[in-house]
Amino acid sequence: MAETRELMLARIREAIAVQHGPELPLPRDYERQGSLSAEARVETLLDRLREYDAQIYEASSENVATTVTNLCRQRQVKSLVVPEGFPAEWLPAFGGMIPEGELDRKPLSEIEAVLTTCTVAIAHTGSLVLRHGPGEGTRRLTLLPDLHICIVREEQVVETVPEAFDALREYVTAPITFISGPSATADIEMTRIRGVHGPRYLDVVLVRG
Amino acid sequence: MSIRVGESASAPSFQQAALALLDDTQLRRNVRHATDVITRKRGLVVGEQADWQALRDAGSAIKRHTLRHLDEYLLQFEQAFTAAGGHVHWATDADEANRIIVGLVKQHGGKEVIKIKTMTSDEIGLNPALEAAGIHPHETDLADMIVQLGADKPSHIVVPALHKNRQQVREIFARAMNLPDLGDRPEDLTAAARRYLREKFLKVKIGVSGANFLIAETGGVCIVESEGNGRMCLTLPEVLVAVAGIEKVIPRFADLEVMLQLLPRSATGERMNPYNSIWTGVHEGDGPREFHLVLLDNGRTKVLANPEARETLHCIRCGACLNTCPVYRQTGGHAYGSIYAGPIGAILTPQLHGMQHSQSLPYASSLCGACYEVCPVKINIPEVLVHLRGKIVEEQSANVESVAMKAMAMVFRSPRRFEAAQRLGRIGQWPFISGGWIRNLPGMLGNWTAVRDLKPMPQQSFREWWKQREKSNG
Amino acid sequence: MQITLFITCYNDTLFPETGISVVRLLERLGHEVVFPLAQTCCGQMHYNTGYQQEALPLMRQFVETFRNAETICIPSSSCVAMIRDHYPKMAEASGDAALAEEVAALLPRVFELTELLTDKLGLEDVGAYYPHRVTYHASCHSLRGLQLGDRPLRLLRKVRGIDLVELANIDQCCGFGGTFAVKNGEVSAAMLAEKMRCVENTGAEICTAVDNSCLMHIFGGLHRQRTGIRTVHLAEILASDGSGA
Ligand code: SF4
To answer: Which InterPro entries match (chain B) (predicted)?
Structure first.
């Protein structure tokens, strides 16, 4: 095993010793910083999420809990798992709620919905980024339930992908998931079809102010 | 050493394989439809990205820089990955990689594994190796399932079942899953796949994956996918084994800000694919408790050693060059006899083989340049194709073509001989002229007249006209 | 201006009328055309088919022949692409520094016909008259190699009497590809069939391009099918002025 490693490294070194041009600086002339107003940024995010077939709800910081409660009622959700660290003031008044810590009561695969926050959202690509910190749950938590409800605060929305990477700088070794719409596939006739193995429904609650 | 690229060593030549595929009406229709849809979608999302060319420049430069320091970055990755609780394995070729993976599965007493789409595992022939050891691999990517359940071969590096339409997929699923009443709407088919695999995801203890990017700085791994099957395989099993070519490493976490903009737009024509997972080794209480990564050479260091073609290793397997390729669009992927089809396959497969096999592939291109134009990491595929043709010519023994080409070069080297040849050609062509046109030529040139007429050489060449005019102008 | 013509080997042999048209056009525009008889071939076919060794002396010959030319005009985008994209690398690889220098000095003086007319001479209206329905095929080398953009179309639009119709899927290769058409004859034929369909759908009588190589291939198919559609090099359209000369 150690021999294979040495052999491969030796081959690599031999290969890269063969003639190279001068080493040039890495060009990074792509757009780092967006130029949209805060309002336009949020609108872009919502538009793109809608294009992915996500449902959008808007709330003020005071009525997040009510919005989520209504949403669950509307969707006739019977069980909802909520991760540790989820803001208490946003918890819906809802009987079927199961805190992450009490998952032994019911297997995750039988729970219908999950409610989380996120770390950053990217307008340009319509992506929600979770680093699975407090309020965001472990990775499986947002994977097995069929409905993922994600709360995005207005100020978490950045415009470009590089801006999102700047926001993630402190979390480079955390598990990170970019979520851009509900699970989908383009494998049949190259057409995006919603809902394969991951959550088939993605509801985003945008919190303004 | 046994370098294997799927079963390409024993595949028929491109010309031969293409001939049969050109007659497959359904396949051609499916391929045309799929490539049309995807190129249109790609065009839209690339068009709206104002800094696309700057991103391509950055992507290409990151890859070039990484390859130049590949040993350092791999070691940095290994160290960080190990520190994060992972285990790195090194494999010089397909057999070695398979031995390692089969060994790991057996060690954990696994009888089955769940797999995320990985071209690298097809390259090394992992599934047959697992099966030979009594381990059943479940492909979980929808397209891979279609290929596996239909006992078929992949025909595209991103959408391996692109040659099948919904009715054909329905048939395969209905048979394999025993669902005689299955509908043929894509929604029906994805729902069937969901039901079929759900229980496997929850039950199978070992996952096998590839990797889109390995991050040297952090020891992280990034996997890009759509369906969520990837996230299932990455997070639910107890043990995860990933296999990745050594060229998959990138220096920094932040380099993903470039790659994750280039890849989805190029691959599926989306601003972002539904899921990207980035994680680092083993995370306490979240995901597998054991993570192995097999770093694969399998001919890559030979590609790396060739300064004229090493850019082949920039490839991020987006498939854009396949979708845009006018040759691929006619034949689909099976003509290439390799799991790597299309323009990238035409340069990668023969090089991995050390130019021992797949020698017809560098000629499977009209050099139209469409691949280079779309490649997100700016691989100049036409140039590499021409370079590989040169290698093939260098190594071949004399044949009709090489004798003819050399004779022609000799003619071109002297204007006098060139003129004489023009005159000779005019005389030599007369037996083939009928009704003012050449309709039937012998030998290789018969491939021209099979579908095209050829105008005979005119009675006066341009230079003869010119000389005559000069004379009359005095 | 004195313009030196590199006619290219296949135009010289198979399409003299293209060369004659270039001469007539440039002379009509008031320029002097020179044709060095020492020229033969740029080496493209050999280079692209893998006979790079054989292409090298042809490059030397080209450089020698055109060393002193002020402005070189070439009515073939693929040959210009060969010279522009591959000569510098070939010269460098040959290890002959003087050759590399000469190539570098020569390149700025090499023009494809429509580049010469639009960029160098600043023209769009060249005084042509061509009362036909015409569609323009953008060859791959003109499109992606030289990035000619709309130069050919700008010239065509100014032709009097012309009925210019747009070709669908204009960026798709016609399937010629040099020796590809012979080595992979069947796939090439399938590509050609698609191109012919697009050409026929325009209702044009004439399909034009800046490369006779593609046109030979397209016309070969159109003629075999007895479509009655002809192909004509762009130079011939621009040279026609209704005088019938
Ligand atoms: S060669 Fe370029 S375009 Fe083709 S698959 Fe690789 S990255 Fe994509």
So the answer is: 4Fe4S_Fe-S-bd, 4Fe4S_Fe_S_CS, FTHF_cligase-like_sf, Helical_ferredxn, LUD_dom, LutB/LldF, LutB_C, NagB/RpiA_transferase-like
* CB atoms inside a 10 Å sphere around CB A88: 8
Report ipTM for this prediction.
Answer: 0.96
The dihedral over CA atoms of A129, A134, A139, A141, expressed in degrees to the nearest 10, equals -120
CATH of domain A37-183+193-208: 3.40.50.10420
Answer yes or no: CATH 3.40.50 is held by domain C2-120.
Answer: yes
pLDDT band at C38 (very low <50, low <70, confident <90, very high): very high
Same domain, B19 and B149: yes
Reply yes or no on whether the pLDDT at C245 is more than 70. Answer: no
pLDDT in tens, C197-208: 999 999 999 999
Q: Could you tell me whether strands C206-209 and C110-112 are parallel, antiparallel, or unpaired per DSSP bridges?
A: unpaired
Q: What is the pTM of this model?
A: 0.95
- Rounded to 5 degrees, φ, ψ at A148 are -110, 120
Q: Are A161 and A125 in contact (CB under 8 A)?
A: yes
Q: According to the model, what pLDDT value does residue A191 have?
A: 76
pLDDT of residue A104: 82
A-chain CB neighbours of B71 within 8 Å are 9, 12-13, 16
**Count of domains in chain B?**
2
* Residue ranges of C 150-179 with Cβ closer than 8 A to chain B: 171-173, 175-179
Which chain B residue is nearest to residue A29, measuring alpha carbons? B54
Q: Is the CB of B315 under 6 A from ligand 1?
A: yes
Note the pLDDT of residue A19.
Answer: 80
Average pLDDT, chain C: 96
Which chain B residues in 391-420 lie under 8 Å from chain C, judged by CB atoms?
A: 391-394, 402, 405-406, 408-409, 411-415, 418
Is B263 near ligand 1, meaning CB less than 6 Å away? no
Per-position b or e across B218-233, b if 16+ CB within 10 A of its CB: bbbbbbbbbbbbbbbb
Q: How confident is the model at residue C244 (pLDDT cuts 50, 70, 90)?
A: low
Domain ranges of chain A: 37-183+193-208
